[in-house]
Amino acid sequence: MFDNTTYSETGQPVKKLRRSRTDKMLAGVCGGIGKLLGIDAAIIRIVLVAATLLGFGTGAVIYLICWIVMPEETAA
């Protein structure tokens, strides 16, 4: 349904980092990163929670920055 892939002038696919509209729990940041990297969003979520708990809130800060900076994917 939603696709983060656009095409360059040469016709090569170019993926863009966008917040997911479908695979989200809070803002879609982990879903968007998971789509871009081709891995499950749950893995990204686990890494961010671990970074939050073990890194004195680092994961939460990274998530908030990504939420502000990353645009939401558009409807196809």
Automatic annotation (TrEMBL):
Pfam families registered for this protein in UniProt: PspC
Membrane topology: Single-pass membrane protein
Keywords: Cell membrane, Membrane, Transmembrane, Transmembrane helix
UniProt subcellular location: Cell membrane
Positions of the Phage shock protein PspC N-terminal domain: 15-73
UniProt keyword annotation of Acyltransferase present: no
Transmembrane stretches, start-end: 25-44, 50-70
Presence of the UniProt keyword Transferase in the record: no
GO CC annotations, alphabetized: plasma membrane
Top-rank taxon, per record: Bacteria
Main location (coarse class): membrane
Descriptive protein name: Phage shock protein PspC (Stress-responsive transcriptional regulator)
Organism: Crossiella cryophila
